[in-house]
Design goal:
355 residues, alpha/beta, Quinone Oxidoreductase, Chain A, domain 1, Rossmann fold, 2 domains, eight-stranded mixed β-sheet, six-stranded parallel β-sheet, 29% helix, 26% strand, Lipid_raft_assoc_Zn_ADH
Length: 355
């Protein structure tokens, strides 16, 4: 069947970053050429073919590349899950607002199975279901737009789980990161008082996101002891941890209200350590040494509805997605090395298009 609409010059082959084996990015990634461009969606399809503009990298992708072997018969293992780009072809089953050629969009690959199989988006063209694609205004910068969905979906799930509202005081750990920076802004939009934790070098950026108070974790080390001293008499309603610092939960009774909770989405201490901590924090009773506070950790798959909700806030200037750095397609390995430092201030982005 012929597609409803398609661009006239879709090349038969494309470039994409491909993982060849298990290991760190510099050892296992290769910029492959001559890969088949995804097929144009048929007329009755609900898929969309996107010419990729920018791809936002995920810290967890590096951990996956180091720990998960390439499965047999899975095809080229292409990393990453979120992007910005423009529509070059679409089936009639796709949402009407994203079928027009040239429409600027953000999109994501579903997780976890497609990610584990390497059906990622760090490529010049990507074909995805229309349910994973959202229209954005052409005025939005494509670099920052590429980071809307994953960070935004995670931040939205955190504030909805905590039901953050006016009158609450929340602590955001990792306030300069890709999730934390969005989370700070969404909490402020809901009228909460926000205390942001980051390194002193990121203070200006974090204050620019709107925090009411800033804490330099390097200056105030150990951080839990400082929080107990400074906030013991005005404890937090919620501790929102975008880093995954176990000590922050273990010591939380000193600065977190009894009815409050630590909500953690960080795994910077490693996947194995994070899983162990999650089991201990959620299952160990207090009479065996468990912490008398709630601990919440959940999966945060991206969602199209979240992008639809967030995009107008960005267009109106009420929310922004900070970008730490933008790397050319040829420098993809350097981009992964930047995000692996754990010091990125916002999103690390690969510019896929050269024009």
């Amino acid at each position: 069947m012929a597609p409803t609409t398609q661009a006239p010059a879709i090349p038969p082959t494309m470039r994409a970053w491909v993982r060849r084996r298990r290991g760190p990015a510099r050892s296992v990634l290769e910029l492959a050429t001559g890969l088949p461009t995804p097929a144009v969606p048929t007329r009755l399809s609900s898929d969309v073919l996107i010419r990729v503009s920018h791809v936002s990298l995920q810290f967890t992708t590096g951990m996956v590349m180091k720990t998960v072997p390439i499965l047999p018969f899975s095809g080229p293992w292409i990393p990453e899950i979120e992007l910005s780009g423009e529509v070059v072809a679409a089936g009639e089953g796709a949402p009407a607002e994203i079928r027009e050629l040239g429409t600027h969009v953000v999109a994501f690959q579903s997780v976890p199975l497609p990610l584990l199989l390497g059906h990622g988006v760090l490529a010049e063209y990507v074909r995805l279901p229309g349910s994973q694609v959202a229209r954005i205004d052409a005025s939005l910068g494509m670099a920052s737009a590429s980071g809307i969905i994953c960070s935004g979906s995670t931040a939205l799930k955190i504030i909805r789980t905590a039901a953050v509202r006016e009158g609450h005081t929340v602590l955001v750990n990792g306030a300069s990161g890709s999730i934390g920076s969005v989370l700070v802004q969404l909490c402020k939009l809901r009228g909460a008082k926000v205390v942001g934790v980051a390194s002193g070098g990121n203070e200006a950026m974090v204050r620019g996101m709107g925090v009411d108070e800033f804490v330099d974790y390097r200056k105030h080390d150990p951080l839990p002891a400082y929080l107990a001293q400074q906030y013991g008499n005005k404890r937090f309603d919620f501790v929102l941890d975008c880093v995954g610092t176990q000590a922050l939960f273990v010591n939380s009774p000193a600065y977190l209200k009894p009815e409050g909770a630590v909500i953690n989405v960080g795994a910077l201490e490693g996947i194995g350590v994070t899983v162990r901590n999650m089991l201990l924090n959620t299952c160990l009773p207090t009479w065996l040494g468990g912490v008398p506070r709630r601990y919440i950790m959940f999966s945060t798959p991206p969602a199209r509805d979240d992008a639809v909700y967030l995009a107008p806030l960005i267009e109106e200037g009420r929310l922004r997605v900070p970008v730490d750095s933008v790397f050319d397609m040829e420098d993809g390995v350097s981009a992964y090395e930047r995000i692996a430092t754990k010091r990125a201030r916002g999103k690390v982005v690969v510019k896929v298009r050269s024009d």
